[in-house]
Structure formats: C-alpha cells, structure tokens
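## tool: complex_structure
## caller: assistant
## args:
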Amino acid sequence: MEQTQARARLHEFLDDLNASIDTQIDLGDIKVKDVFMAGMGGSAISSNIVAGCCSSFMDIPISVNRSPLIPKWVGKDTLCIVSTYSGNTEETLEMYERAKAAGAHIVVITAGGKIKGMAEQDGYQTLMVPTGFQPRYSIGYMIGYIAAILSSVGYPEFSRRLKACMKSLEAYRNYLEAPGSLAHLLAYKYRDCVPVICTENKFKSVSLRWKAQFNENSKMISFDTALSEFNYFEANPWSEYKGKKMRLIVLTGEDDLVEGGTVKRAVQNIESLGFPFDLVAIGGATHEERLFRALILGDYVTVYIAETAGIDPEITTVISELKKRIREGN
Amino acid sequence: MGLHDMSEGPTGKLPENILSSLSDDVREREQATTICLYNFEASNIAADTVSSYVFSNSEVQVHTIVDRVVPSWVNGSTDVVIMSYSGNSPEIDSIYFGAKARGARIHCITSGGKLKELCDTNGDDLITVPGGLNEFDATGHEIGVLVDLYESMGIKGIRAATEAAVPRLIEYRDSIWNSENAWKLAVQISGRIPVIYCIGELRAVHKRWKMLINEVIGKLAFSGELPEFDHNEIVSWTEDSDASEFFILMFRTKSDSKLLDHIVNTVTTLLPEYNLDMKVIDLEGELMERAIRGIILADAVVNCLKESE
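## result:
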C-alpha cells in the first residue's frame, strides 16, 4: 500500500488544531445572542463538530448553515463565523454578503481567495489557514480557530475540553497509523461496500464526516442516517434487503451502550432481525474525546481504502468541473 | 422494538386535513423569540415543512431538533414545542422533563399517549390532532395546528399563506393522484434503491419520500441535500461502479437565491453526462406550498407502488 500525501495531512490534523486553538483574537467588547456558522463541505462539518459539542454547555445557540440563503433572524447581535478554505466557494460568499447586510459581527476563516479581499475591505477579522492542501484536510485549523473565536467572546469551555484530551488523541492517532489497527481492519472490511453510518444526534457531525470522506477520499457511495429514524422506519427494509453491497455501521460512544439505553436497544433490535451490521463503539473519558477519536478513525479508514485501491484521495475531478461550470454560468 | 406492522400509507387527503386543522379562532400566545421544535417519527415532515416558511419570513429563531437532549441554552424565554403524533416516542420523557427543568414554555402537539398525559397533568399548552389515523395521514393535521401555533406566537402571515395555498394543493393533488405521471415514476423507481435529493428548504420532501418507501413499501431508500451534495457526494456518484444499484430523484424549485437555483441547474445538467439513472422533478408554487407539492407527489407515487404490489 503506497502512502499518499493525504495520510501526512491526517497526521497533522492535531498539530493544526494545536497551532490554532490558542490564537488571540480581539473582537472588542461585543455581546452576542447567537452564533451563526456559514460554510460548505469540510468547513461546515468543522462547524457541526463544534456546535454539537457546545450545545451541552453554552448558554447561546449555535446554528450551522449550508445554503446561500440565511435565516431572517441573523442580525446585529449575531456572531457570524464564515469558513471557506479556498475563499472562493460561491455559496459561502453569498452567505457572507447576506450576513453583512443583516449587520452581523463577522469573522472569516480562510486560506485566501475572494473572501480575504472582501473581509479586508469590509474591516472584518480574517484568520488565515495555510495554503497548499485539499479543503477537507484543513479541519484542524477550522475547528481550532472556531474554538479560539468562541473563547474570545466569553466561551472558552470548548477549547478547554478539547485541550484536555489532546494527548489521548495523539496516542490514538499513532495507534491508528500502526499496522493492524482498527482503521486497517475497517478499511479492509468496507473496501467494497456502500457504508451507511447510523448515529445518535450527538455523533451526527462525525457521521457526516465519515460519509463525506468515503465519498471523496475513497470515491465510494455512502449514506448516513439517524438512529431514531432507523429504529422507527428503517429496521424493516434492512431486514428485507437481500443484496450484499449495503453495510450498516452503528457508530457510537462506548458510554452509550448502557443496558436499556437507546443505542443498546437499537443494537439488540438489529441483532434480533438477523442482518449483518457493525457496531463501532468508541472509548474515551469525555464526549469530546470520543467524538474526536471517531472523527480521526473515519479519516484513516477512508484514506487506507483509497491507498489499497491505488486511488489518490486528494483528486476530486468532478468537483473541479462543477465549480468551473458554476463560475462560468454565474 | 423489533419489526412492527408496515403502514397502509397516506390516503391523499393532505390538503383537506391542513384546512380542517386550521382554527377559525386562533388564541393569542406570548410572542416567541426562540423556538425549539422537537419532532419525532413522521411528525418531522410537518415540522420541516412549516419551519421552512419561518426561516425566510420571521426573525423568530426556530431550531428543529430530533434528539433526546435539551440544549443548555434553553431557558425561561424559550418556547419548546414537542410534536409526536403517537405521543409515545421514547424520547418524550427526557425532553419534557429536560425542558421543564430549564423553565421553558412547553407546547405539545399530539393525538394522545404519554405526551398528552404529561401535558394535562402539568397544565402545559396542549394542541391535539385527531387520533386513529396512520401517521402519514396525520401530516396535514400537524401542519395545520403548527401553523396556527406559530401564528399565535407572533409569526404573522404564515396562516394566510397556508390557507391561500390549499386550493392550489387540492388542484395539484387531483392532477397527480393515480395519474399516468405518478405511475410512470413508480415504475422507474421500483426495483432500485431510490436516493432523493433537494435543497434544504425542501427537506420535508426528501424525508417524506424516504420514510414512505421505508415504511409503506418496506424497501431501503436514502436522501441528501443540495448544494452540500456538490462538495462531497458528487465524487462518489461519478466514480463508484455501485451507482448502478440506485435511482436518483432530484427535486428542483425556484428558490429565493439565483445562485442556488443556478447551482442546482448546473448539477442536474452535469450528472446525466455520467450515465446515472436519474429523474429531475420541478416543484412550483410559493414557499412551503412547493414542499407540500413534493410531499403529495411522494404520497401519490407510493400509493401506486403499494397498489402494484
């Protein structure tokens, strides 16, 4: 298996996080009532990860938006974090313009492009991500900067929790890079299937990441689904499915496997129906640690699949073509 | 848990059910600023449909949530709406008591069950929908009562917009129910795994299709959203040989963003170049109305599939 550049980028994820999480940002004495995160693809997933963690301890809501349209409630008391690696993502540029028109406090995270110039001209703070890699491998910087922005407006808890588990995450990453790790095992298992990742809401951001990484790194069709919907609507069709391609993966934290809990009951239900599935339960001392371990695991699994198949995870020809056509016709 | 009986599916009365559940005398409630809308099982179709109107037309912040956890920012000035047709969703207890502990104003929409009991016992705002229906026929009623609730919480204009749309929805339903077009579409998707895509505003549409195919036909189906699709999923659709196992159904509409419409149009012209089996369907009408049209179309096509079995 030939190691690709993508694998090096995965290794640097935690370094990128460390390099950005303590960034000092002076936003003045602003008081915000809500946080609105604008972005697409990997940028939006970074936002989802932070938002998902913060909902259990922050006293203001965080929303993530993946469309050029923004909700009407965005206004002068909103902190708007606009993330686009290239700085040229059309949807994000439109979100930026709309948030600006609504009077929101804007902070931009980017590696350059059009948005850098726009933010400079409009007088908004811009946090720079290094250039030279695929946008989806920039999530260390994206998450780190979002954490730093939240700290700067009086919400340091996410940074604190994340820093507390960094050493453990580094050890986990090193384990996944060693031969015979869980990532290698799962890569072998999922190399020729359509993975369907099923999670509770608190792991939703990671299921989105796994799906996107299967799509882009491994060039594999993949879907995600919510455990609550699975329990109610999807168990029947899975038990009737006679094909061999679809593979259900229940991804959860080990702590959620308590007897009588939602995940445990779902797993017992699936076992009783008798169709093949995988339970991937992630250990760790805190929710943040389990979530980030799951995130790292998915990244390695998908890159290993690509490397085994001789595919370059970084090349996504159709996205380049689509972006070109969107620009030309816009 | 375990296997439960599959639903009979919707009977096509969605527009009439919306109308019959819109009250002539909506009582005033306190003005909302932030609403947490918990929605379970098929109730999330109504939740997503109605919330799409609020997104563009009101400064009230609505968070539609499918979870058993109440966020820490919920407090005494938050309105928590718990919507569950059966009233017995397993998440009810943790949400109800979680919201109560945070002092939120609680509104319950249900036909009965544990949710109604909790609401009755504690004197919360209870809005009932008719019992005894299959959950997909309840959608129209749930849309109607949620529209009234939102109107009474200060989201003005939503009731009038809904009422105005009903005659057009009836006309659309009559044109599509048991029609040649519905049968053709049913034939196209049968024997394949359907994957339904649309923009976020039409979230209720892809959810309805997926739920109906799962629950009424007993087959797998999946769904996703544009324009996020362009940033990851599109790669696998154009490079994975397993794509031939699926049938893509992509919904288009005229949204409030020219860029968004342009992106969707570009995708729908690019994908066929990769020999994917797909069908593009245009949904017309005003905001919220176009989502309900997509729901009615799902109901009509699934009705054909059910009949053909």
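## assistant note: The radius of gyration of chain A is 20 Å. The CA atoms of residues 18 and 253 of chain A lie 24 Å apart. Handing back to user.
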